């Protein structure tokens, strides 16, 4: 008998066709396999038993980086093939899956370390199980001529491997060796060739700009306080924590606690940055993560990274090479021009990067992986969705931007684009959008955007000459969480974040909803507080604390603002006059601004030098085991439940006056939020009989808050949905926008 088998999924660039060939030969089958661009097509001839065993093997024994989404089989008359072959690829059509970049596999690492191997210490060693994919592809299908490796002609030995069906490098598109492949060069800030060993330069305290898979990193010895401080000064990065790369897992265990799940995540083919709890006291410089007790750690994921760890170097700062809020630098020319005031030396190579792509950032919360930045290792894999009626381009928000192209039952999110308030990010956005539209053959019929009229993405939407669908920010968050969990039923949802434009023109950020993706209804929110000063107040948590005290506690609050926050009486009086006389002050229910106020009042952080700093430092101080809470109330006002913390402020100040430990106050505040949220969900469950809750928004990256909340809600018999495939922050809202607009 004969069968034609259509296989859909992530099967390009992962050694799938060679695997099929070997599997067919093992089962004595004849026929062929070929890449159809959108899928792989297989023709097999043999007995029914042979074919059934072959199909089982496709699902059970495929390469580790392959992901089979669907298979379709049809029976045909036998054509009489004499053997099994791999046919030439066809031009792409239909659904396309492109593999993300994959971390160096154990087999290649072993060859890299072997003195006898011809690729000994070769910085671009790869095979069908590892190496660059998305960052080098120019067009589909994923064949060498369609990548930035096209300019490198393989030598005879590499060519023989490439064409040898039994080789691990059979049809490995980036295949290369020192004789025919990309090469490294080390230059100084003037572009002059340097002969010194680059690992020695790192050991001496110099800063290197190192070209990686998806862009440049700025690298220095993480154990050298002077080098770390110099990097901070040159990069203008006052306090935001640096990402770290450790030589191996044993080194990470010297500096951070690590669970089984975190260990598996670090060693996965995605090899993301994983946020870990720091072991204290620590020999690492405090300037790596000022005010925090977590470390963002990753392992070497390219052979070049392994070359950096020579001699006594065991842990390096490995931070994205970019100027503030701009996309990561990714070409040699751009690096030499834009990073010359930061880096002392440049470690370059001549394999072009086609797509910029930052490192992904993850955390493990109660054994579940949470992605806070989705990029290398995950993009451009699709998210499965309920089929849409229309093809959609969703533009996301202005912070932590991603966009989403959705058609049928698949949604393709871009890599992390960054903040959209600068021209470089906007240009990168447009370029990446053009490429992904071409790869996935999606011509959008409508454009979804945030309701905020001042967002750059809203203005971009208006320039595209397509029908527009505005989607409320927090509804997009919630829809994203439901799609992330493939959940189609009705839920009670909570979205906590810094800010989002509400349907009443106020700035929301602590919102309870009920509904499905088709329709959400706002049921409750944190009591509004005036927000004087807009973005300037977001940068000044002490001003937010002043506003809470004046609004919630009047003149008594003014007294404590002067005493605890150091505001001059004249400045307090000015704010009081504005509150009394102005009718146009925006109101906010933001959870992020609440965290800012508490952080400032307790003396933890009174000025944000990066987004979320005050909240992160407050979380970092929490001590375990605190059961006490501050007072709160949930009252119905105007047909909606309003969460009030008015009584919390005098109680919190009383704790400060008693000189209670700041870690105790921080933990007590977190417990208060957990109790208040759980109490509100219980009230809403009683009203609606809905027992499933969904949690989204950037505040849900707070591990102390989220883990405690999960425990409380589980005790109350709620089914809980949290993000798993896309970030809970604004990096995930484009997915929610797309599914709301396209239904």
Largest sheet: 10 strands, mixed
> What is the count of DSSP helices, taking H or I runs of 4+ residues?
22
The coarse overall form would be: globular
Number of strands: 30
Mean pLDDT: 95
* Widest sheet: strand ordering: 6-13-7-8-12-9-11-10-14-15
Instruction: Quote the beta fraction.
Output: 15-25%
The top-level CATH class of the domain at 529-721 is: Alpha Beta
CATH architecture of the domain at 529-721: 2-Layer Sandwich
The assigned structural class equals: alpha/beta
EC number: 6.2.-.-
GO molecular function: carboxyl- or carbamoyltransferase activity; double-stranded RNA binding; ligase activity; zinc ion binding
Protein name: Carbamoyltransferase
GO biological process, one term: protein maturation
Report what the structure shows:
With 743 residues, the protein is of the alpha/beta class. 33% of the residues lie in helices and 21% in strands. Among the domains are: 2-86, 2-Layer Sandwich (Alpha-Beta Plaits), CATH 3.30.70.100; 184-362, DHBP synthase (Alpha-Beta Complex), CATH 3.90.870.40; 529-721, ATPase, nucleotide binding domain (Nucleotidyltransferase, domain 5). The protein has 22 helices and 30 strands. Strands 6-13-7-8-12-9-11-10-14-15 form a ten-stranded mixed beta sheet, sandwiched between helices. The protein has a seven-stranded mixed beta sheet with strand order 27-28-24-23-22-29-30, sandwiched between helices. The mean pLDDT is 95.
